[in-house]
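TL;DR need structure tokens for one chain.
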Amino acid sequence: MQKRPLSPHLQIYHPALTMLMSIAHRASGIFLYIGSAGLSLWLAALAYGESAYAIARALALAPIGQILLFLFIWALLHHALGGVRHLIWDAGLGFAPRSADLLAWATLIGGIALTLALWTAAGRAPL
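>> reply
TL;DR here they are.
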């Protein structure tokens, strides 16, 4: 008798867009968790006074701070759109492969487009 795996193995799975979006949704949730700590530190610096806020603002305006802020905004919008996608599924809609792919593309493109639009509208540094 031939030994076979008990369940499908990663070697036979082909990455699908919906699978990648599921991973991105989880990753954005983790980044939101970490970013919330940064937001809390920024608010604490605001409460501690001008000198603490000046340090926090300098960190946020540094290139790495701008990158992290941009990613935090993307994570927020991507995660929100992923939630809308799940609400559509909860309503029993969008399960057909083509519909699921369209929703995944809408989440991906929408998250990026909304992030760029918000970043541009805020003058690149919403502080």
